[in-house]
Amino acid sequence: MKQTFHKVGLIGFGSRGQGLAETIINDLPEYAEIAAVADLRPAPSPTPLFSTRCPDAPFFTDYRQLLAMPELDSVIVSTYEDTHVQIVKDAVLADKAVYCEKPIVPDLEQAEELYRFVTAHDCYFQIGLNLPNFPVPRKLRRLLEEKAIGNLILIRSACDVGREFARSVLMTKFIRKRGNFIPAKLTHDTDLLQYLAGSYAEEVWGKTGNFLWRRHGEPAATDDTALIAGVLHNGVFFTQSLTSCGSSYGRKIHLFGTGGELIADLHANELTLIRPGAGPETIAAGSAGGGAHNGADALTLAGFFDYIDSGIKKAHTPERILSSVMIPLAALSGKCVPTGQWYRSIACGNRKRAFGT
Fold it and tell me: 340: Cβ–Cβ under 8 A, 6 or more apart, which residues?
């Protein structure tokens, strides 16, 4: 693989976009630089680091002006999910490699549209799902592959965003009805549990509700709590919960197998292995390096640039466009949903079946 230095356009200059820019500046200066920015605001306020390190990067209010720059080979899309399909299409047709943040789309129709587009074109496309690159999930995946707990039976996953984070985010971003908090948050977690199990959701049941966060006297703009259960295509059972009333932010996962258990906090650097007849064993997960999200952002972006340099112009794991959103969207329906039928109808070319049929 011949490595090249990448000129990146950043589409969307909110907190996440600026965070990814700073990851490139601080952790990946050998790989790339942010060479242009597009944002709907005519005068967004860059961080001091960005202003210092990227003083000559032009700003556009129309992302299509950015895509017209021949010196850019790739773009990072960090806008609201209801804009992703059109921006990705335009970027691919402009021959730019695309790294698109999650949640990738707001609904099933757009998931199918985007999947069919990127798989029908020779392109570089990757979703910014970084949770598998956290140190603990990386170690969990290896232990599962080594059959450290035998055959996987059940995954119990919980995401507690904490009252402080939930109130801040739900009462600012989601109160304006740009997306739904449930898929926006759980896309990460449900993508991870499918990744760890090496499968996809076959059947999902879920229930969501709003218990805390709404403006006084107004109906809820988005749900803030979710409970999901299901079975994967390979027979593994799973549960997933999301709470917004806890005292702290955290993600916990508990994996049960025929020969033991694995218990972990996904944001930590160690995990616990328990085998029948033996006491708990603490296992170090190591480190993914410095930077945001326990080094996972830098690792994920470095992987994206290496993927471009591989010269294999084919969408990277495009099936995650479908699988990453279908579990939380099924939960929002409040029904028992045959997600596997819908997934295979698109990814495997079977006759299409919609959710609930």
Answer: 200, 201, 202, 203, 233
| 356 pLDDT higher than 70 | no
How many Å apart are CA 327 and CA 343, to the nearest integer? 11
Nearest to 330 by CA among 190, 210, 133: 190
- 123 CA to centre of own chain: 20
**What pLDDT does residue 43 have?**
78
Number of helices (H) and strands (E) in the chain: give both, helices first: 11, 15
Buried b (16+ CB within 10 A) or exposed e, 152-164: beebbbbbbbbbe
DSSP structure class, residue 132: G
Give CA–CA dist 271/139, Å, rounded.
9
Q: Distance between CA atoms of 79 and 106, rounded to whole angstroms? A: 12
One DSSP character per residue, 302-334 reads HHHHHHHHTT--S-SSTTHHHHHHHHHHHHHHT
Q: Where are the beta strands (DSSP E) in 210-249?
A: 225-232, 237-243
Give per-residue pLDDT as tens, 174-213: 777 677 899 999 999 999 999 999 999 999 999 999 998 9
**Using CA atoms, how far apart are residues 23 and 101, in angstroms rounded to an integer?**
14
Q: How far apart are CA 224 and CA 244, in angstroms?
A: 6
Q: Which two tokens stand for residue 51?
A: 């202003």
Cβ pair 89, 115 in contact under 8 A: no
Report pTM. 0.94
